[in-house]
Amino acid sequence: MSKKKSYNLHKAFEASGVQEVLDELDNDLIGLEPVKTRIRETASLLTVNKARDEMGLSKVQPSLHMSFTGNPGTGKTTVAIRMAKLLLKLGYVRKGHLVMVTRDDLVGQYIGHTAPKTKEILKKAMGGVLFIDEAYYLYRPQNERDYGQEVIEILLQVMEDNRDDLVVILAGYADKMDTFFTSNPGFKSRVAHHIDFPDYSDDELFEIAKKMLTEQNYTLADDADGILKEYIAKRRTQPHFSNARSIRNGLDRTILRQANRLFQKGDVELTAKELNRIEHQDIASSRVLKMKGKQKK
Predict the structure, then answer these.
(1) Fewest CB within a 10 Å sphere: which of 117, 178, 220, 258?
(2) Contact yes or no for 67/179 (Cβ under 8 A)
(3) Which of 118, 27, 16, 133 is nearest to 80 (CA)?
(4) What is the enclosing helix (H) or strand (E) of 233?
C-alpha cells in the first residue's frame, strides 16, 4: 500500500467522529475546562500519530495510561467513559468499552486467588479501558500478607506489554494517589497522563442542579433559585461533600418532599405544571438549611 504524500488533520479529525464525543463531554459536564482541554489535546495527539503512520513516518505508540485525581463527584467516571469512546473512534482500541473495578474486584482472599481474579478482569478489559477507582488501596505496605502487591505486578506487566490494546486509568484522591505513585515507581513511569479534576464552584453546582432537574422534567419556581443557591453554599461546607453527587442526593430528597407536599393537598386535581414544579418550600425545609452545625443531613 502506497504511503500518503499529504494529510489533512482537520478532515481526518472530522471524519473520525471524535468531535461528537467531545460535544457529548461538553453537554454531560459543566465546567472542568482544564480536564476538557487535556482530552482535546489527547485527541489531537492521536490524530497526528495516525497521520504519521499513514504517511510512513516513524512513530512511537503513545502510552495513554492515565491518572485521574480529584474529589468524589467531579466527573471522573463520565470522562473515562467518553475517553473509551474517543479511543475507539481514533482506532487506538478495538472495542471502546469501559470496565470499572475497585480493589475488591482484583484482590483475592487467599493464596492463588488473586492472579486468576485479576487476569479475568484484564481479559474483559482488553480492547478498551480499565478504570480502577481508589487505586491506592491496592498498596498496603503495613500488611506484609496483603495480595494487592500481586495485582500491581500483574498490572505493570500488562500495561507495558499490551499498551496498544488496553488503557488503564487509575483514579482517586490527589494526596493518596501521590503517595501511591511515590511508593510504586513502576506505575509512575507507565502513567504518562495525570489529569486533576477540580471541585466545582457554587455557580457550577447550581447549573448542574438545574440540569439534573431538567433531565427529570422538573422546573424551579421563580422564587426557588435563591434558596437552591443557599442550599448549595451550605451543603458544601459540611462533611462528606461529594460535589455533583451530593447535589444529586439533595435533589432526590427535594423531589421526595415535593411529592409529600402534593399528597397533602388531598383529593384534588393537579396540573402537569404542579407535578413538575419544585417550590421554594421543597428546598427550604431541608435540614441542611435548618442545621446550625456542620452535620450531614
Answers:
(1) 178
(2) no
(3) 133
(4) helix 225-235
* Contact by Cβ (8 Å): 142, 174: no
Strands laid side by side in the 66-70 sheet: 98-101, 129-133, 167-172, 66-70, 193-197
The closest of 285, 197, 200 to 236, measured between CA atoms, is: 200
CB-based contact 96:84 (threshold 8 Å): yes
Cell of 182: 511515590
Dist CA 131 CA 104 (whole Å): 13
Position 79: which residue type?
V
Q: Taking the model in full, what pTM does it have?
A: 0.87
CB atoms within 10 A of CB 240: 7
Regions of the chain where pLDDT drops below 70 = 1-3, 58-60, 144, 292-297
E strands, the chain, where? 66-70, 98-101, 129-133, 167-172, 193-197, 219-220, 277-278
Count Cβ atoms below 10 Å from residue 68 Cβ, excluding itself. Answer: 27
Taking each helix axis from N to C end, the angle separating 225-235 and 244-263, rounded to the nearest 10 degrees, works out to 130
- 48-100 pLDDT, tens digit each: 888 888 888 866 677 899 999 999 999 999 999 999 999 999 888 999 999 99
User: Scanning the structure block, which residue is given the C-alpha cell 489527547?
Assistant: 42
DSSP per-residue string spanning 3-51? PPS---HHHHHHHHTHHHHHHHHHHH-SS-HHHHHHHHHHHHHHHHHHH
Give the number of residues written for the chain.
Answer: 297
Task: Provide the 3-class DSSP secondary structure of residue 197.
Answer: strand
Residue 58: per-residue pLDDT: 67
